[in-house]
Q: What sequence folds into this?
C-alpha cells in the first residue's frame, strides 16, 4: 500500500508582496563604468595661464580661437554631442558662458567655484572693445586676462582626474615662431596707433 506525503497546508501570500518580490531589481553588484577621464584623458585642454595670455596677445587674439576650438572639441567628444567646435570657436561670445558653466559643474574638491557669469560678461565686454574708436581698441587686448580663472579651474580639474597629465606650460618652437612673428605685428600696430594719435 503506497503512502502519500503528509498534507502541508499552504499559507496565503500577500499579492502585493508577491509582485514586489517578482519584479524587484537585481541585487547583483554591478561595477560602475569608469569615466573616460580616469583612463588618462583630460577633461579640458591644458595650458598654463602665462602661455595662454602670451599667445593670445602676440597673435592678436587668434590663439583664443584655437583655444576655444580645443575646449569645445573635448566637450563634443566627451558628451557625444553634435555641436560644431569650429563654429563655437569663431563666435565665442555666444558660447563662453555655456563653456564656463560646464567648467564650473565639472570642478571637484572643496573651495570656491568658478564665477561663470562674471567671467563671461567681463570677457565679452573687453573683447568687444576692439570696435572702440582710436587707441581705445587696445583695451580688447586685455581680454585673455579674464580667461585666467577659467583656465585655472580647467587645470585644477585635470590635475584631480588625470594626475601627472602635462600642463602645457612650455613654449614650443612653433610657439616661439608665433611669438617672434606676432611681436612684429603687435609692434606695427602700436606704431600705427602712435602715428594716428600724433597726427590726430
A:
Amino acid at each position: 500500500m503506497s503512502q502519500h506525503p503528509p498534507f502541508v497546508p499552504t499559507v496565503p501570500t500577500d499579492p502585493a508582496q508577491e509582485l514586489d518580490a517578482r519584479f524587484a531589481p537585481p541585487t547583483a553588484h554591478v561595477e560602475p563604468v569608469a569615466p573616460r577621464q580616469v583612463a588618462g584623458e583630460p577633461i579640458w585642454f591644458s595650458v598654463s595661464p602665462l602661455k595662454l595670455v602670451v599667445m593670445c596677445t602676440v597673435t592678436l587674439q587668434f590663439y583664443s580661437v584655437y583655444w576655444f576650438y580645443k575646449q569645445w572639441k573635448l566637450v563634443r567628444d566627451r558628451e557625444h554631442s553634435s555641436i560644431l567646435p569650429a563654429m563655437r570657436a569663431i563666435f565665442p561670445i555666444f558660447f563662453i558662458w555655456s563653456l564656463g558653466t560646464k567648467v564650473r559643474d565639472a570642478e571637484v574638491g572643496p573651495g570656491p567655484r568658478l564665477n561663470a557669469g562674471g567671467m563671461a560678461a567681463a570677457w565679452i565686454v573687453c573683447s568687444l572693445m576692439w570696435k572702440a574708436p582710436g587707441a581705445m581698441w587696445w583695451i580688447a587686448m586685455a581680454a585673455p586676462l579674464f580667461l585666467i580663472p577659467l583656465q585655472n579651474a580647467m587645470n585644477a580639474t585635470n590635475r584631480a582626474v588625470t594626475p601627472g597629465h602635462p600642463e602645457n606650460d612650455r613654449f614650443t618652437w612653433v610657439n616661439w615662431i608665433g611669438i617672434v612673428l606676432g611681436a612684429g605685428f603687435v609692434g606695427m600696430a602700436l606704431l600705427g596707433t602712435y602715428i594716428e594719435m600724433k597726427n590726430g
